[in-house]
Design goal:
Radius of gyration of chain B: 17 Å
Strand content of chain B: under 5%
Number of strands of chain B: 0
CATH class of chain B: Mainly Alpha
Low-confidence stretches of chain B: 91-106, 175-180
Shape of chain B: globular
CATH topology of chain B: Rna Polymerase Sigma Factor, Chain: A
Oligomer: heterodimer
Radius of gyration of chain A: 33 Å
Structural class of chain B: mainly alpha
Mean pLDDT of chain A: 70
Largest interface: A-B, 45 and 58 residues
CATH architecture of chain B: Orthogonal Bundle
Number of helices of chain A: 18
Helix content of chain A: over 70%
Order of helices and strands of chain B: HHHHHHHH
Order of helices and strands of chain A: HHHHHHHHHHHHHHHHHH
Strand content of chain A: under 5%
């Protein structure tokens, strides 16, 4: 008899016994020639079927679901910036000869890549918006792709988050805009570093956890600065980033077994900024502006320099007006510059537009 | 909602779909891992790794007509193999003092525990395909067609794997069988 037939008889007997249609003994009687070989296997199968059906505790299931969903949110943020989600890699769409040529093509690509290692090293200091910046990000992804251990991955994510933070600081120092992408990357890398940290054994957490704590603390300061300078449309995204950073800080503390201090972190970010700025600018102008034509005011930056030119008439009186306008307190940049001069026509138009936002 | 639609939504990172898929498969994956590693906490950790890796792979996931569970089992198998590699052993495990939560009663006899432990260790000696057939059929209670679908094999191949697996288990369990 073939082994396939023996396998089929065994399977039929198992199915009959498990469904209650027959017993082990009945099966053995049905196949007397096979009974000696069949019996131990059937008994083994029945013992296997009697193994307890263990389950993961409800608390563990819930806790893991939270982690899964939070990882999903991070992956979503990352894939959105990388490109269309769910897109197949090109090599999986190749077939036949194309697929056979793939190794050759890959070797060529690798050779080119090796030849241009200088490009990668040169990209290390590039900033968002610069030509080599995508090379820098690609090199980071490549390093992650070949790193599996939690500790090493946590270190990489942490290092990349630190880079994003440095980039933001450099951009801020150069008075350049910080793109949303950089903020999103910073939050995502920090979150991934935390995920990996939480996967590590308690003993290994301490050093990395301390670094993450420092990073998340520094992040909040830098993000607050970015938020202060960002346009209205970027505010909500930055608020979310700040919130994520605060949560990250708390998670890092918990990973280290430190209980996070309850409220203080919340206060500074929510309200103070929008209210602070409108007060500061009007007071400066009222004292400085008597001679508006002189564009030499260095600190007030662009706003004062642009405004004098169109009107250029009676500066002294106009400078006092801005103090009345703090009403639309959310749009600090627009108010001080535009409101002062004409008072007649432009003003109604601008606040109206801002409120509309 | 059918699984294909759910998986498609999950690939677009829709929170509800991911949550539903997770709930649908988490216990089966946990059990699969538990019967391989024999320790509740390690099984929980590895189950977490499976789902977190799966989430990372979701944007590039392609069903190819294979159930989503098949993909999860493949990840689970790789994680378990990694775990044993890191531990420097091949799956022999210490007996837990407490039987894990679930249907099993805490008053289960020590003899039975020892037998279960030996059986689990023996299952670890099987080939990966045989292990999957045994766990999916006898722990999860799936039929041949479902197991074949998950493993991407024919029902005939599943029956053969089951036959060979039971033969090996009987050989490995021979001594404890005599005692019983």
């Amino acid at each position: 008899m073939t082994s396939a037939k023996r396998a089929t008889i065994l399977d039929m007997c198992i199915a009959d016994i498990r469904s209650g249609r027959s017993t082990v003994e009945e099966c053995l009687r049905r196949y007397p020639d096979h009974a000696p070989a069949l019996e131990p296997l059937l008994r083994e199968a029945m013992r296997l079927a009697a193994l307890p059906r263990v389950t993961m505790s409800a608390a563990a299931v819930d806790a893991l679901e939270g982690r899964v969903l939070s990882r999903a949110a991070q992956v979503n943020a990352t894939t959105l910036r990388k490109g269309r989600p769910g897109r197949r890699p090109f090599w999986s769409r190749l077939a036949g000869r194309q697929a056979r040529l793939l190794p050759l093509a890959m070797s060529l690509v690798i050779a080119l890549a090796l030849a241009s290692t200088w490009t990668v090293s040169a990209s290390a200091s590039s900033l968002p918006g610069e030509a080599l910046y995508p090379v820098k990000l690609a090199a980071e992804r490549a390093r992650l792709a070949v790193t599996w251990r939690h500790e090493a991955r946590a270190q990489l994510h942490l290092a990349f988050a630190e880079r994003r933070l440095e980039e933001m600081q450099t951009l801020l120092a150069a008075d350049r805009a910080v793109a949303d992408k950089v903020v999103n990357d910073l939050v995502a890398e920090t979150g991934l570093a935390l995920e990996e940290l939480e996967e590590m054994g308690a003993g290994k957490r301490a050093r990395l956890g301390a670094k993450l704590l420092a990073l998340t603390g520094q992040q909040q300061a830098v993000l607050t600065l970015v938020k202060e300078r960002a346009p209205e449309e970027a505010q909500s995204g930055l608020s979310r980033a700040l919130e994520a950073s605060r949560r990250g800080h708390e998670r890092a503390m918990m990973a280290l077994g430190v209980t996070p201090e309850p409220s203080p972190s919340r206060q500074p970010t929510h309200t103070p900024k929008p209210t602070d700025t409108p007060h500061v600018k009007p007071t400066r102008k009222s004292t400085h502006t008597p001679q508006p034509t002189g564009t030499s005011h260095a600190k007030p930056t662009r706003k004062p320099t642009r405004t004098p030119q169109p009107t250029g008439t009676s500066p002294g009186k106009q400078t006092l007006e801005p103090t009345r306008t703090p009403g639309p307190a959310h749009t600090p940049h627009a108010k001080p510059t535009r409101t002062p001069k004409p008072t007649r026509t432009p003003k109604p138009a601008k606040p109206g537009r801002e409120k509309g936002k | 909602m059918d699984e294909t639609a759910l998986v498609q939504r999950a690939c677009r990172m829709e929170r509800a779909a991911i949550g539903a898929l997770y709930r649908q498969h988490v216990q089966a994956i946990y059990r699969y891992i538990y019967y391989r590693v024999g320790d509740e906490h390690t099984a929980e950790d590895l189950t977490a790794e499976v789902f977190l890796r799966a989430i990372e792979g979701l944007p590039n996931y392609e069903p190819r007509g294979v159930p989503f569970a098949a993909w999860l089992y493949r990840i689970a198998q790789a994680r378990v193999a990694d775990h044993f590699r890191q531990e420097g052993r091949t799956g022999t495990v210490a007996i837990e003092e407490d039987w894990p939560s679930g249907e099993a009663s805490p008053s289960i006899k020590v003899e039975q525990l020892v037998y279960h432990e030996a059986l689990r260790a023996a299952v670890n000696q099987l080939t990966p395909d045989q292990q999957q057939v045994i766990i999916l059929k006898f722990v999860e209670g799936l039929g041949n067609a479902e197991v074949a679908h998950i493993l991407g094999k024919t029902e005939g191949a599943v029956k053969s794997l089951q036959h060979r697996a039971l033969n090996t288990l009987h050989r490995l369990m021979g001594r404890s069988d005599d005692k019983r």
